[in-house]
Amino acid sequence: MSSTLRASRPARLGQYLALLAYLVFLAFPFLWLISTAFKPATELGSLHPTWIPKDPTLANFRQAFDEQPLLQAAANSLVAALAAALIAVVIATPMAYVMARHRGRLSTAATGWVVISQAFPFVLVIIPLFLVLNYLHLINSLLGLVMVYVVWSLPFALWMLVGYVRAVPAELEEAAAVDGAGRLRTLVSVTAPLLAPGIVATALFAFITAWNEFFFALVLLKTPEKQTLPVVLTHFLGAEGVADLGPLAAAAFLATIPSLVIFAVIQKRITGGMLAGAVKS
Predict the structure, then answer these.
(1) Statement: the pTM of the whole predicted model exceeds 0.70
(2) d(CA 276, CA 279)
(3) Is it the case that residue 132 has pLDDT exceeding 50?
């Protein structure tokens, strides 16, 4: 027993070191972004950059708000991302339950199509989407953009939820049926609480995907007051591709905050409700 523990300690230490290195790798761009956002112009052009600004300033943030309509763009992104996440989850949840509980050739074919559809590049579908939305008079419209986001995120949301549904033991539903619960009562009282973490995780994925999306928004939205935040961030690039680095870093830093806040708020719910519906009252 002791020899097994001694043997496992180096392996566990190696895992922790690998995890720490991975976290540093992920955190480096974000930390450098924060550092750049608070640096004055003199430090941004320095040949010897430093992690911590010697003379931190908020001028980059003021300039970013003065030059571009960041609040309006953020509101557009928020509306589009929240609507797309909500609609995608509402549509995908019952479909995922049916596909997971009633397996057959049709379910297998649908699952395969879901996986294959994720390999389609944006360029392949943008022209048909543009023609359809133009016919519906939804070009330069947040409603049209939300429809595109729902269609694009729905396959992966469905694939995620199918896995969560299959992870819920069917015996729990059978036990509830034996106790006299009907199908609707079983779904609401037993299955739904167990699926809550998966639904939240799927909604978070759909939200972040829509919040960060750039290509569809660039093509479908024309007027500045309708553009989303990722598109507006490109306006900090000059005509010759020279970036206004300070304001760009400040605006990009602000653009990352909603995703971080939402994840921090709901991450406990993702794990906390994992077994909420498994105990009969």
Answers:
(1) yes
(2) 7
(3) yes
